[in-house]
Amino acid sequence: xRVIFDKELIERIQQLESHVAQLRNLxxxxxxxxxxxxxxxxxxxYAKRHVLLQVAYIGWDYSGFxxxxxxxxxxxxxxxxxxxxxxxxxxxxxxxxxxxGRTDKGVSSFGQAVSIDLRSNLSEGKGVFIPEGxxxxxxxxxxxxxxxxxxxxLPPEIRVIAWAPVSESISARFDCQKRTYHYYFPRAxxxxxxxxxxxxxxxxxxxxxxxxxxxxxxxxxxxxRRIMDIQIEAIDDSTDGYSMFRLKLVGQAFLWHQVxxxxxxxxLVGQGKEEPEIVRQLLDVGQxxxxxxxxxxxxxxLNLFTCSYSEDVCQWIYDAESLRYVITGYQSLWAExxxxxxxxxxxxxxxxxxxxxxxxxxxxxxxxxxxxxxxxPLMKRQKCESLEKRIEHYAKRKRIEIIETDETS
Length: 409
Fold this sequence. Notes:
Layout: H1 2-26, E1 47-57, H2 75-85, E2 98-99, E3 108-120, E4 128-129, H3 146-151, E5 158-165, E6 178-186, H4 192-199, E7 204-207, E8 224-234, E9 244-251, H5 258-270, H6 277-283, E10 302-308, H7 320-354, H8 387-408
GO biological process, one term: mRNA pseudouridine synthesis
Family: Belongs to the tRNA pseudouridine synthase TruA family.
GO cellular component, one term: nucleus
């Protein structure tokens, strides 16, 4: 009974904490308000339209996707600045907003999706509705060019790729059928075939508590997830340690840091430090209920590449002119970064000519933690706290906080 009570208490506390966090963000006056355009805009002259937006971003220099209290350097903060500056929404709290995924600091995306109610030029059509008290004055049959006007005011790293009108009940998060992540890495000295063999154990529904960071503090106490497909493919024709590969991971939903933990384990297999069988062992939570301590793979190569919806729900609309604008901007970013990579590669080539020893340590910066001189196998390492202990400690801490709050109120 105690475990059941603890889980119910955690759920209730999490709901309250989430509500408080949302209110704090929503009640910050003028956070996204444009100082240059203070003229009052009457949103009641327009209908609204429920849409999905496909948002791409290079997240290396951002503190993640979701709005945070301690920084405005997030993708979501920039997105809402643009939405309010262009008067597409009146405020976040009235926008019926949902995001498909939460990407962490440094993580990028090509296919992040958000659902939201935007201002519309129309009075009818899929997703169009007239809120109570609104009296739209329809003077045109053309819809607002959502993608084009947003991209004009967004930072160069963030771009809207497409939009889709959807039914009012559709949520970017809850109606997503599958999510696809890409992770990019150099071959270095990795045994790619061993990594492929190990990765196949991940397909299917499993308890992934040993392949994630347990988020008990946010009410996550169930760790079963289903991976539909996983592939490791070469991106270029090179065969040396600098050749690039892509890991493609498809699933319905993912746990906190799940992809980065999976990549870290596959790297250990590829380096010959663990056998492919280690993946099956870590998935057997009956025999191995506590996660061995290991460093995650870096966040920089990770990309939430697609969020997929059924065709009945969503049919993306792409605008040729907007696509040209996005391509041109991203080509500039590509040129800058590829020039840097090419320069470094040439310098490395010259350095390698001067060295008698072949060094292939291209993977070092993509694995967190200090590399020990003597490798300790995963199953012999110190184990993290069990799920049950984490739940017990979290519930106890929250009970104490509630008692202290009651005593001071």
